[in-house]
Specification:
mainly alpha; elongated
């Protein structure tokens, strides 16, 4: 079984790190967040491409989008 720490426990553990280790932790977390966002974006693009290829969506102009939003 995995030992899952609470957010408060993670913060407390981070407080025990040196300043340099805390900065490294921040850098690692930022990179991981960026990578997760990139993976999400790739998945969204692939989903959109499948929808388009399957005929479930069509290209429209920005004017058409605005008209749909405002109606």
């Amino acid at each position: 079984m995995k030992n899952i720490m609470s957010f408060a426990e993670v913060l407390e553990a981070a407080d025990k790190l040196s300043s340099e280790e805390q900065e490294t932790l921040i850098d690692v977390l930022r990179r991981r967040i960026i990578e997760h966002r990139r993976e999400d974006l790739v998945r969204d693009i692939k989903d959109a491409q499948r929808e388009f290829q399957g005929g479930r969506c069509r290209p429209i102009t920005s004017d058409e989008i605005m008209k749909e939003i405002l109606s």
